[in-house]
Amino acid sequence: MIVMDTSIWIEFLRAKEPYLSLVSEALEDNRVIAFEPVFGELLQGAKSRHENDAIRGYWENLPRYSIADLWIEAGILSQQKHLISRGVGLIDAAIYMVAIEKNAKVWTLDKKLLSIMEEKYIFKINF
């Protein structure tokens, strides 16, 4: 499974290649996990009703990952791995936590997030 962070969703929603094709393929293959903090960020930045509706549609139809005490667990992971001192915020720590918990891959353009993750959790595309 793949957890896509906000940066990938934005490229996809802007219909930028190669993200449009690659994300569409992952969605069709049911390989994408929806994660509430990412969708919250997407909705926060929605510029039109059309964007809002599209984001909500994906949220309502994708398998979701949820965990009790999400923010507490993300804070613990962040503290244990000293993520705040490496410039990684709580949402990115939570995304990393999902990868660990679900043995999933994280697809991101965020260089700080990429720099702290173990290789086995990084989703890689060869362009």
Account of the protein in words:
This protein is α/β, with parallel strands linked by helices. It contains 7 helices and 4 strands. Strands 3-2-1-4 form a 4-stranded parallel sheet. The chain is globular and about 40 Å long. The model has no long low-confidence stretch (mean pLDDT 94).
Tell me the layout of helices and strands.
Layout (H helix, E strand, L loop, with lengths): L1 E3 L1 H8 L5 H10 L3 E4 H10 L3 H13 L2 E2 L4 H11 L9 H13 L2 E3 L3 H6 L11
Helix pairs in contact: 1-2, 3-4, 5-6
Short overview:
With 127 residues, this protein is an alpha/beta fold.
Cα separation of the termini: 20 Å
Number of domains: 1
Biggest sheet strand order reads 3-2-1-4
Mean of pLDDT: 94
CATH class: Alpha Beta
Low-confidence stretches: none
The named CATH superfamily:
5'-nuclease
Globally, the shape reads globular
**CATH arch. level architecture:** 3-Layer(aba) Sandwich
What descriptors fit this protein?
alpha/beta; 127 residues; globular; Rossmann fold; 7 helices; 4-stranded parallel β-sheet
